[in-house]
Amino acid sequence: MPVTTSEERSPAPAATLRPGSLGTADIAFFVVSAAAPLTVMAGVAPLAVLLGGIGAPAGYLIAGVTLAVFAVGFTAMSRHVRSGGAFYAYITRGLGRPVGIGAALLALIGYNGMEIGVYGLLGTATQDTVHALFGTDVPWLPVSLVGLLLIGYGGYRSIDFGAKLLGVLLVAETGILVLLAGGVLLKGGAHGLSGASFAPEHVLVPGTAAVLAFAFAAFTGFESTVIYRREARDPERTVPRATYVAVGFLGLFYAFVVWVVIQAFGDAEVMKAAATDPGGLFFSAITTYVGGWAADLMHVFIITSVLASLLAFHNAINRYGLALAEEGVLPRALGRIHPRHRSPYVAGIAQTVLGAVVVLGFWAAGADPYDQLLLWVNTPGMIGLFALQLLAAIAVPCYFRKVSHQEGVLRTVVAPVIATVLLATAIVLVVTHIDLFTGASTTVNTVLIVLSPAVFVIGLAVAGWLRRARPRVYQNFAAEPVEATDQPKEFRRCPPPS
User: Is 491 strand, coil or helix?
Assistant: First the structure.
């Protein structure tokens, strides 16, 4: 009879995410890539200029400052909350489990909406690029399905593989915009360089409200730095640094690039150019100041920009799915981690299948990949993430009122309160200008707006069911990891002001 040693009888330890894999730059690559800077600039910034005039660059600065204020309290809390649940863990600590569970469902739907809709953009961007370069038309559905497989594979691989890939793609898409800026600056623009874009008389105009709506949307996904906490090196420092790097870079870069393209045409002529061909504004500028070859590269890099955004959101969604599976809210199978790549691969497969179902559903219905798949799926996802930011801002002072800490009042009260007011204003701007994002009917826009609060209410109902039917899951929801013992295990609603 063979002898079995104790080592042979012991089960293999369960695979975990790979700790210490990501530095500040790696995490920043994920969140900046999710924002898709080249796609936002070439595809959306011309509309911001058309609506807000030459003061449009200031709108991106204002949005950046607002989100930097939000990041002050957000990152202060990140040093105290070690859960892998990111947004919903923060909201649970400050506002209680029911609100936290509602936020968890909202995050899952919001991030999925932000990613899945973009497969429609991938199809149309590829169509435009192939037509511009080769004069050939390609169907969008095969492109989107191939994209689903590529992104699924990227999420299946290790997180450091994704970080390296996103680093290359991000350098490409920002590099082509830097090339455009260099050409414009070296030639002095159309009529010399002007700072009129930042003058109060051009910033404080009625169209600025619409510009701000676009500008806030351009930062979507920046807060996902905290999702990678479990894989970060020195997360107490890395996560806050990556958050500030991402917000600072996006705010300054967006404002600079929009200002540059205004200089390329001139303050007086850019509005006419944007009205004549908004989609071609950046391509026309780079052709004039750099060359046609650079315009061809920009077409190609828009595709890689979209792919980078998809991969960044896919990785974020996988980690939310993993966290909720570990909580017991989602099926445990979604919490499996690949033994070699150390990735949440089952959650990734599930997300890829969901994306394929939605994409094929829109195709079967004869929907337009841009006007309907992208805009109708992406817009409620964007609103959902804004709502999560608002809830997180409210949760920060509530949390710090309940625990002992050495954080200053600026971080724990002043900045979060200011951020709450500013983010609420941003949500109002987006909702009241939703027709600019969707181009849809009033009925469709109403449905898209109502989806996020409806999902949150469903989450509250799920919380009530968990409390009755699965009390242990409910009580342990968003609890600290076992090794973290310095945080309270019981979380209450924010107490009323004294």
Answer: coil
- Determine phi and psi for 22, rounding to 5 degrees: -115, 130
Residues 213-234, mean pLDDT to the nearest whole number: 78
Q: Say whether 22 sits in a helix, a strand or coil.
A: strand
Ramachandran class of 191: left when φ > 0, alpha when ψ lies in -120 to 50, beta otherwise: alpha
Tens-place pLDDT, residues 316-333: 889 888 888 888 888 888
Question: On the CB side of 153, how many CA atoms lie within 13 Å of its CA?
Answer: 7
Q: How far apart are CA 424 and CA 69, in angstroms?
A: 13
Class of domain 23-475: mainly alpha
Residues 6+ apart with CB under 8 A from 54: 196, 197, 202, 262, 267, 270, 271
Nearest to 235 by CA among 6, 75, 71, 365: 75
| Amino acid occupying residue 19 | P
Query: What is the greatest pairwise CA distance in the chain?
Result: 91
DSSP 8-state symbol, 328: T
Closest residue by Cα to residue 254 from 428, 427, 42: 42
DSSP element (H, E) containing 284: helix 281-289
Helix (H) or strand (E) holding 179: helix 159-187
Q: Determine the Cα–Cα distance for residues 53 and 434; give it in Å rounded to an integer.
A: 19
Q: What share of the chain is helix, strand, coil (3-state, %, to 5)?
A: 75, 0, 25
Q: What is the pTM of this model?
A: 0.87
User: 3-class SS at 232?
Assistant: strand
DSSP secondary structure string for all residues of 413-480 = IIHHHHHHHHHHHHHHHHHHTHHHHH---HHHHHHHHHHHHHHHHHHHHHHHHHHHH-HHHHHTTTPP
Provide the angle, in degrees to the nearest 10, between the axes of the packed helices 159-187 and 281-289.
60
The two three-digit tokens of residue 95, written as one number: 């506002």
